[in-house]
Amino acid sequence: MTYSSRTRLRGGRWPRLLAWLSVLAVLAAGLLMTGAGLSHRLEMTDLGTAFGLLRQGAYLAIGAAALGLITLIVASLCKRLKPALAGALVVAVVAAMMIVPWQMQQRAQEVPAIHDITTDIQNPPEFVALASAREAAPNEVAYPGESTARQQREAYPDIQPIVLKLSLSEAMNAVEATAQDQGWEIADVGDTKLEATATTLWFGFKDDVVIRLNEVEEGIRVDMRSASRLGASDVGTNAERIRNYLQALRERAE
Prior knowledge:
Blueprint lengths: L2 H5 L6 H28 L5 H31 L3 H30 L5 E3 L12 H5 L10 H10 L6 E3 L3 H14 L3 E5 L3 E7 L6 E11 L2 E10 L8 H17 L1
Antiparallel strand pairs: 1-6, 2-6, 3-4, 4-5, 5-6
Helix pairs in contact: 2-3, 2-4, 3-4, 7-8
Protein backbone atom coordinates (compact mmCIF):
# COMPACT_ATOMS: atom_id res chain seq x y z
CA MET A 1 0.00 0.00 0.00
CA THR A 2 1.44 3.39 -1.01
CA TYR A 3 1.54 6.44 1.22
CA SER A 4 -1.27 8.15 -0.71
CA SER A 5 -3.54 5.14 -0.35
CA ARG A 6 -2.87 4.93 3.40
CA THR A 7 -3.95 8.55 3.87
CA ARG A 8 -7.31 7.67 2.36
CA LEU A 9 -8.13 5.06 5.03
CA ARG A 10 -11.65 5.56 6.31
CA GLY A 11 -11.70 7.61 9.49
CA GLY A 12 -8.16 8.84 8.99
CA ARG A 13 -6.06 8.69 12.13
CA TRP A 14 -8.97 8.63 14.60
CA PRO A 15 -9.50 4.87 14.91
CA ARG A 16 -5.81 4.26 15.52
CA LEU A 17 -5.53 7.22 17.91
CA LEU A 18 -8.54 6.04 19.93
CA ALA A 19 -7.10 2.55 20.04
CA TRP A 20 -3.78 3.77 21.41
CA LEU A 21 -5.48 5.97 24.00
CA SER A 22 -7.65 3.09 25.23
CA VAL A 23 -4.65 0.75 25.45
CA LEU A 24 -2.60 3.32 27.37
CA ALA A 25 -5.52 3.99 29.72
CA VAL A 26 -6.02 0.31 30.56
CA LEU A 27 -2.28 -0.15 31.13
CA ALA A 28 -2.24 2.81 33.51
CA ALA A 29 -5.31 1.46 35.32
CA GLY A 30 -3.66 -1.93 35.70
CA LEU A 31 -0.52 -0.36 37.14
CA LEU A 32 -2.53 1.69 39.63
CA MET A 33 -4.66 -1.23 40.80
CA THR A 34 -1.75 -3.66 41.06
CA GLY A 35 0.52 -1.07 42.63
CA ALA A 36 -2.08 -0.18 45.25
CA GLY A 37 -1.86 -3.60 46.87
CA LEU A 38 1.86 -4.01 46.30
CA SER A 39 2.72 -0.62 47.83
CA HIS A 40 0.76 -1.46 50.97
CA ARG A 41 2.23 -4.96 51.17
CA LEU A 42 5.73 -3.44 51.00
CA GLU A 43 4.72 -0.84 53.64
CA MET A 44 5.30 2.01 51.21
CA THR A 45 1.78 3.44 51.71
CA ASP A 46 -0.83 3.30 54.43
CA LEU A 47 -4.12 1.51 53.86
CA GLY A 48 -6.07 4.70 53.12
CA THR A 49 -3.62 5.75 50.41
CA ALA A 50 -3.57 2.25 48.94
CA PHE A 51 -7.37 2.14 48.74
CA GLY A 52 -7.29 5.60 47.14
CA LEU A 53 -4.95 4.32 44.44
CA LEU A 54 -7.17 1.29 43.93
CA ARG A 55 -10.23 3.51 43.54
CA GLN A 56 -8.46 5.76 41.04
CA GLY A 57 -7.35 2.70 39.08
CA ALA A 58 -10.91 1.39 38.99
CA TYR A 59 -12.24 4.73 37.70
CA LEU A 60 -9.52 4.83 35.06
CA ALA A 61 -10.33 1.24 34.05
CA ILE A 62 -13.99 2.17 33.56
CA GLY A 63 -12.89 5.12 31.42
CA ALA A 64 -10.61 2.83 29.42
CA ALA A 65 -13.50 0.44 28.83
CA ALA A 66 -15.70 3.28 27.58
CA LEU A 67 -12.90 4.47 25.30
CA GLY A 68 -12.35 0.92 24.08
CA LEU A 69 -16.04 0.56 23.25
CA ILE A 70 -16.00 3.86 21.33
CA THR A 71 -12.90 2.65 19.48
CA LEU A 72 -14.63 -0.60 18.59
CA ILE A 73 -17.69 1.20 17.24
CA VAL A 74 -15.78 3.84 15.29
CA ALA A 75 -13.28 1.35 13.87
CA SER A 76 -16.04 -1.06 12.89
CA LEU A 77 -17.94 1.69 11.06
CA CYS A 78 -14.71 2.65 9.30
CA LYS A 79 -13.91 -1.00 8.60
CA ARG A 80 -10.56 -0.76 10.37
CA LEU A 81 -9.83 -4.23 11.70
CA LYS A 82 -6.78 -3.66 13.93
CA PRO A 83 -8.18 -0.67 15.88
CA ALA A 84 -11.47 -2.55 16.28
CA LEU A 85 -9.65 -5.57 17.72
CA ALA A 86 -7.69 -3.29 20.06
CA GLY A 87 -10.91 -1.72 21.32
CA ALA A 88 -12.50 -5.12 21.89
CA LEU A 89 -9.39 -6.34 23.69
CA VAL A 90 -9.41 -3.33 26.03
CA VAL A 91 -13.05 -3.96 26.95
CA ALA A 92 -12.26 -7.62 27.65
CA VAL A 93 -9.20 -6.76 29.75
CA VAL A 94 -11.15 -4.28 31.86
CA ALA A 95 -13.86 -6.87 32.44
CA ALA A 96 -11.21 -9.32 33.65
CA MET A 97 -9.61 -6.66 35.89
CA MET A 98 -12.89 -5.69 37.50
CA ILE A 99 -14.29 -9.16 38.16
CA VAL A 100 -12.29 -9.74 41.38
CA PRO A 101 -13.22 -6.38 43.00
CA TRP A 102 -16.82 -6.91 41.87
CA GLN A 103 -16.91 -10.39 43.40
CA MET A 104 -15.47 -9.04 46.64
CA GLN A 105 -18.11 -6.30 46.75
CA GLN A 106 -20.89 -8.81 46.12
CA ARG A 107 -19.56 -11.17 48.78
CA ALA A 108 -19.24 -8.31 51.28
CA GLN A 109 -22.97 -7.70 50.89
CA GLU A 110 -23.77 -11.38 51.46
CA VAL A 111 -21.68 -12.15 54.55
CA PRO A 112 -21.78 -10.60 58.05
CA ALA A 113 -19.30 -7.89 59.04
CA ILE A 114 -17.23 -10.14 61.30
CA HIS A 115 -13.54 -11.00 61.20
CA ASP A 116 -13.00 -13.79 63.76
CA ILE A 117 -14.18 -17.32 62.85
CA THR A 118 -13.78 -20.52 64.85
CA THR A 119 -15.00 -24.11 64.91
CA ASP A 120 -15.64 -23.81 68.66
CA ILE A 121 -17.67 -20.72 69.51
CA GLN A 122 -18.22 -21.90 73.09
CA ASN A 123 -14.50 -22.22 73.88
CA PRO A 124 -12.49 -20.71 71.02
CA PRO A 125 -8.78 -21.59 70.77
CA GLU A 126 -6.69 -18.77 72.27
CA PHE A 127 -3.77 -16.89 70.79
CA VAL A 128 -0.68 -16.99 73.00
CA ALA A 129 2.43 -16.81 70.82
CA LEU A 130 0.70 -14.27 68.54
CA ALA A 131 -0.97 -12.29 71.32
CA SER A 132 1.59 -9.47 71.26
CA ALA A 133 1.30 -9.11 67.47
CA ARG A 134 -2.46 -8.89 67.74
CA GLU A 135 -2.27 -6.41 70.62
CA ALA A 136 -0.34 -4.09 68.29
CA ALA A 137 -3.08 -4.41 65.64
CA PRO A 138 -6.53 -2.77 65.58
CA ASN A 139 -8.51 -6.00 66.13
CA GLU A 140 -8.66 -7.60 69.55
CA VAL A 141 -6.80 -10.66 70.82
CA ALA A 142 -9.78 -12.23 72.60
CA TYR A 143 -12.72 -13.72 70.72
CA PRO A 144 -15.32 -10.93 70.21
CA GLY A 145 -18.16 -12.81 71.93
CA GLU A 146 -21.77 -13.83 71.47
CA SER A 147 -22.67 -11.28 68.79
CA THR A 148 -19.95 -12.64 66.50
CA ALA A 149 -20.85 -16.24 67.43
CA ARG A 150 -24.52 -15.66 66.55
CA GLN A 151 -23.66 -14.15 63.17
CA GLN A 152 -21.24 -16.98 62.44
CA ARG A 153 -23.86 -19.62 63.24
CA GLU A 154 -26.27 -18.00 60.80
CA ALA A 155 -23.77 -17.35 57.99
CA TYR A 156 -21.38 -20.31 58.30
CA PRO A 157 -23.18 -23.29 59.86
CA ASP A 158 -20.71 -25.64 58.13
CA ILE A 159 -17.73 -24.35 60.13
CA GLN A 160 -17.32 -27.30 62.51
CA PRO A 161 -14.43 -29.24 64.07
CA ILE A 162 -13.21 -32.46 62.50
CA VAL A 163 -11.99 -35.69 64.11
CA LEU A 164 -8.89 -37.48 62.85
CA LYS A 165 -8.39 -41.19 63.48
CA LEU A 166 -4.72 -40.70 64.33
CA SER A 167 -2.55 -40.59 67.41
CA LEU A 168 -1.92 -37.17 68.94
CA SER A 169 1.63 -36.96 67.57
CA GLU A 170 0.54 -38.11 64.11
CA ALA A 171 -2.26 -35.55 64.10
CA MET A 172 0.09 -32.72 65.09
CA ASN A 173 2.56 -33.72 62.40
CA ALA A 174 -0.26 -33.60 59.85
CA VAL A 175 -1.45 -30.24 61.21
CA GLU A 176 2.02 -28.70 60.89
CA ALA A 177 2.69 -30.15 57.45
CA THR A 178 -0.66 -28.90 56.15
CA ALA A 179 -0.01 -25.43 57.57
CA GLN A 180 3.34 -25.36 55.80
CA ASP A 181 1.62 -26.38 52.55
CA GLN A 182 -0.64 -23.34 52.93
CA GLY A 183 2.40 -21.08 52.98
CA TRP A 184 1.68 -19.76 56.48
CA GLU A 185 4.36 -18.32 58.76
CA ILE A 186 4.35 -20.65 61.75
CA ALA A 187 4.85 -18.82 65.05
CA ASP A 188 4.66 -21.72 67.50
CA VAL A 189 4.10 -25.48 67.53
CA GLY A 190 3.37 -27.48 70.67
CA ASP A 191 2.05 -30.93 71.48
CA THR A 192 -1.58 -29.85 71.11
CA LYS A 193 -1.54 -26.40 69.48
CA LEU A 194 -0.15 -24.54 66.48
CA GLU A 195 -0.19 -20.80 65.82
CA ALA A 196 0.59 -19.25 62.46
CA THR A 197 0.03 -16.16 60.33
CA ALA A 198 -1.44 -16.15 56.83
CA THR A 199 -0.65 -13.19 54.58
CA THR A 200 -3.00 -12.31 51.74
CA LEU A 201 -1.43 -12.15 48.30
CA TRP A 202 -2.49 -8.74 47.00
CA PHE A 203 -2.52 -6.27 49.90
CA GLY A 204 -0.52 -8.37 52.35
CA PHE A 205 -3.20 -8.36 55.06
CA LYS A 206 -2.23 -10.58 57.99
CA ASP A 207 -4.69 -13.06 59.48
CA ASP A 208 -3.75 -15.17 62.48
CA VAL A 209 -4.57 -18.86 62.85
CA VAL A 210 -4.58 -21.09 65.91
CA ILE A 211 -5.25 -24.84 65.73
CA ARG A 212 -6.00 -26.88 68.85
CA LEU A 213 -6.02 -30.67 69.28
CA ASN A 214 -7.95 -32.61 71.90
CA GLU A 215 -8.13 -36.35 72.44
CA VAL A 216 -11.68 -37.68 72.25
CA GLU A 217 -13.15 -41.17 72.12
CA GLU A 218 -13.27 -41.22 68.30
CA GLY A 219 -9.70 -39.92 67.84
CA ILE A 220 -8.26 -36.40 67.78
CA ARG A 221 -10.64 -33.46 67.59
CA VAL A 222 -9.26 -30.53 65.59
CA ASP A 223 -10.53 -27.03 66.36
CA MET A 224 -9.41 -23.99 64.44
CA ARG A 225 -9.71 -20.23 64.69
CA SER A 226 -8.79 -17.70 62.00
CA ALA A 227 -8.93 -13.99 62.80
CA SER A 228 -7.99 -10.86 60.87
CA ARG A 229 -5.76 -8.26 62.49
CA LEU A 230 -7.37 -5.41 60.55
CA GLY A 231 -10.89 -4.59 59.42
CA ALA A 232 -14.40 -5.07 60.76
CA SER A 233 -15.30 -7.51 57.97
CA ASP A 234 -13.12 -10.19 56.42
CA VAL A 235 -15.48 -10.61 53.43
CA GLY A 236 -15.69 -14.35 54.21
CA THR A 237 -11.93 -14.92 53.98
CA ASN A 238 -11.44 -16.56 57.38
CA ALA A 239 -14.34 -18.99 56.94
CA GLU A 240 -12.99 -19.97 53.54
CA ARG A 241 -9.51 -20.43 55.01
CA ILE A 242 -10.85 -22.80 57.68
CA ARG A 243 -12.83 -24.80 55.11
CA ASN A 244 -9.84 -25.17 52.81
CA TYR A 245 -7.40 -26.04 55.57
CA LEU A 246 -9.58 -28.64 57.28
CA GLN A 247 -10.34 -30.27 53.93
CA ALA A 248 -6.62 -30.44 53.12
CA LEU A 249 -5.88 -31.79 56.61
CA ARG A 250 -8.58 -34.45 56.28
CA GLU A 251 -7.18 -35.56 52.92
CA ARG A 252 -3.64 -35.73 54.34
CA ALA A 253 -4.81 -37.80 57.31
CA GLU A 254 -6.68 -40.22 55.07
